[in-house]
Amino acid sequence: MLAFLGLFTIVLLLFLVITKRASPVIALTLIPIFTGILAGKFTELPAMIGEGLLTIAPTGVMFVFAILFFGILLDAGTFQPIIAKLLKIAGNDPIKIALATAILSMMIHLDGSGAVTFLVVVPALVPIYDQLGMKRITLACIVALSAGTMNILPWGGPTIRAASALNVPVTELFNPILIPFFAGLLTVLLIAYWLGKKEKNRLLGIVVDLAPQIDSSINPLHRPRLFWINLLLIFAAITSIILAWAPPHVVFMIAFALALLLNFPQVEEQKKRIDAHAKEAMLMASILFAAGCFTGILKGSGMMEAMAGTVETFLPEQMGRQLPLLTGLIAMPASLLFDPDSFYFGILPLLSSTAEHFGVSGLEVGQAAIMGQMTTGFPVSPLTGSTFLLVGLAGVDLGDHQKKTIPLAFLVTLVILFVSVLMGIISV
User: Fold this and answer.
1) CA 416 to CA 185: how far, in whole Å?
2) Could you report the per-residue pLDDT of 119-133, keeping only the tens digit for each?
């Protein structure tokens, strides 16, 4: 009975979220409460929800302050000098332009927002691509690959969701795949080089001189005098998280407070900057805390354990032991079928629990999932608004963008997965 109710909970969640019949916050909160009551756990629900919220709290806090931290630094124009310098170095060489596109996209995506990355990078580079005669589809492809791979970072939406669903610290999920992650970034740079070389060969003999198209207007929010201090803050925050000097939520809380105080010391300015980024931060935070309700009830009621036990009886043992590898292989294509909330909160916990029944680490399933599901796959998925923003800003057709980018995005995922297998992070 519990296994059936668990499956019904997940299927109903997938149906309502994917078909947009209900928002993720509503579905993640009310569906498990309803099925928990059907399971006869009415009196135990508050304790289950409370336990789920406690486990999710550090991740939710980390996400809110990470968004605010990087948002403040973007407001302060921290990355503008780097953009100008990179484009000046790139000049009129398509190869250098392509590499600069990848580096800029990776850098801007530090805040974990695809929309911000596309809004900053694409409009800045479209005039350059047009003047050189480079294809805009190449621009969209490189930006997508760069942002998608960077989405694996600990404060990226998919990784936060995976850690929340599996009830593990986000650093425990991400840190072991740090080297494979860098291998993925290197692969993106190699792809950018290859695409740039193709463009250069195509344009041979017709390349014109180019003055980098940088907006020289003065933005009152920019703080050029604090450039190096802001960079130091970013470096200190990321280093502290990767080396586990302090919990991520503590790091970002302190880093945000320092960035806000240094760049916008006036109280009224601080309120305006927080308000400017509050919507995105609170929307994701509400989903994460609703997910705490969902996972708390599914695990506390025994539904998850019952489902995993049922799947174990039908799944061949050899296949069960390969669940992390299989998850890594399907993760990127799954971005075309499942939005991040339905996959990470509905499907991943079941895959993880099933793997543990076969004696395989459920953590490995989560690590394999973030190698592609709504990471490398998010900028090509029709289930995310960011994809349409990217193709709209670049002025390219969605189908053309997917045709060019999906095979390359899958390649990046395979490289990350392959390196993970070689290092023994993913069991085979």
Assistant:
1) 9
2) 778 877 887 888 888
